[in-house]
Amino acid sequence: MQIRWIYKIFPVLIRYLQGYKKEGKYAGTTNLFYVRIDQDYINDPGILEHEVHHGKQFWTLFLLMIPIVAFIDIISFIYLTSYSIGIFNIGYSIIEVSWILLLAHSLFYLLFQKYRLASEVDCYKVQLWNPPAFTNNNLVEQDRYRWSYAQFIATRYNIDISKDDAYQRLLGDPP
Fold first, then answer.
1. Whole-model pTM?
2. How many CB atoms sit inside 10 A of residue 169's CB?
């Protein structure tokens, strides 16, 4: 197992597994900050960077949600702890539910197509600027990969987008 550090303090755990791609349709996946990549792609830095970027997206949104969660908790504690409906205390239930916001990236990714699209476009842009897609400034080869990644976005992620539209979103520098 490998560890990559995001913002120098948050881990992204990376594990290469034999036969992982056979179980599904992807060479790699990321859940929260845990990356799994098929062993056959151990020498493909593009896939690694793509999946690590998903981990970075998780940690970034996690950090952004902490002040919101803290604000909700403080307000609910001050104003709602004395309100009850039977045995159900409103203030404490809001505090408990607010922590779900810390899993915002995963929830948004699963529930919202536009968020999933933006997330995948960012990760594929990162992948485009790493080998094998980007080698010796070979822009023709990189464009061939861009079309492949556009096809992946249009067909593999349950996103309502055409291959051409996905291609246009993949133009430009990585985030």
1. 0.85
2. 18
